[in-house]
Amino acid sequence: MLDPSRRGKLWALHYTRATTEKPYPLELTNFPANADFHPLGIELVPSDPTGVSRLLVINHRRQNTTIEVFRIQLDPHSVVLAHETTLTHPSFVAPNAIAAISPTEFFLSHDHYFTRRKVDLVSFNEYPGAGVHNVQTIARNIAFANGVAISADGSTLAIASTTRAKIQLYSKDKTGVKFVSSVHVPFSVDNIAFAGDQLLAAGHPYLPEFMALVKRKSNRAPSYVSAIAPRQTGLGDSWLTRMSAGANVTTTFMSDGSFLGTSSGAFVDMKTGTMFVVALYGSGVAKCDYGM
After folding, report:
1. Has 191 been labeled as part of a binding site?
2. What's the record's note on cofactor binding (predicted)?
């Protein structure tokens, strides 16, 4: 980056289905004043037994990459993040995305480390200053391992492979993680997120135009979001088991870049039926009605 001393920010906005307030930068309390802050992936952690909610943030500092742990403090009109601890480990080489599975465990994807593109399972102690407890690599040699997500029933770990334009699906249980199948999408997939029974995948449908934007030879690049769901519906079987009978891949959002370009992620508020699509380059966020 041109100026690593310039800090990045995390933003929040308050909304209903019909209204959207102006976004505002979040206050970071107790965060070291002299520390770099360049956030990439973020993840809400399941509440611990005391009801405390936390946010994990991948922080690409100039010396090394860390995972910052913040306690979320809510009031009716604002959100404040109180810094609790910084997680470091030699394996945190090029982390890209993060998916929490418990208050003290998360999956972490690495998008490049020579040829070792991988996903790790990281365990940490929840009290401040305790640090990383264990790191276990659970998937290797994934072409540009990018977004990661866990299904609501806990049966499935999904990993985006950007250069292969596909999402790899793994079974997940107490004994480990095992590759099962993959689903192709019509674009270079970036980040993924589950929305009920659907897996949302956002990405870049035409890489030459995307690279032209990155190199400032163009002022826009297209966006694409797909929803992936099992053809088999009904209760009883896990999401991954139902996916084995086939998947439906439908288009949820498209733009030539004039409305919103370089889509890098999409997520849904299931209570209000609202979808947000975020851009990798640019300041835009699209808010859409989402039909379940």
Report:
1. yes
2. Binds 2 calcium ions per subunit.
- What pLDDT is attached to residue 115? 44
- Is the CB of residue 213 less than 8 Å from the CB of residue 262? yes
| Mean pLDDT in residue range 11-25 | 93
Question: Of 168, 179, 226, which Cα lies nearest the Cα of 199?
Answer: 226
Q: Give the per-residue pLDDT at 232.
A: 87
For 265, what's the count of Cα atoms within 13 Å in the CB-facing half-sphere?
A: 21
Residue ranges, CATH 2.120.10.30, the chain: 1-141, 143-292
pLDDT for the residue 23: 92
Structural tokens at position 24: 């505002």
Mean pLDDT calculated for residue range 97-119:
82
Q: What is the pLDDT of residues 207-223, one digit of tens each?
A: 999 999 999 999 999 99
For domain 1-141, give the fold: Neuraminidase (2.120.10)
pTM for the structure as a whole: 0.93
- Adjacency order of strands within the sheet including 105-110: 95-102, 105-110, 118-124, 132-139
Token pair 């996903």 is found at 119
- Does the annotation flag 190 for ligand binding? yes
- Phi/psi at 242 (5° precision): -70, -30
42 annotated as belonging to a binding site for a ligand: yes
DSSP string, 206-262: -HHHHHHHHTTS-S---EEEEEEEESS--SSS-HHHHHTT-EEEEEEEEE-SSSS-S
The reply, when asked if residue 75 is annotated as ligand binding, is no
The domain 143-292 belongs to what CATH superfamily?
Answer: TolB, C-terminal domain (2.120.10.30)
Task: Determine whether the annotation assigns residue 48 to a binding site.
Answer: no
> From the centroid of its chain, how far is CA 172?
18
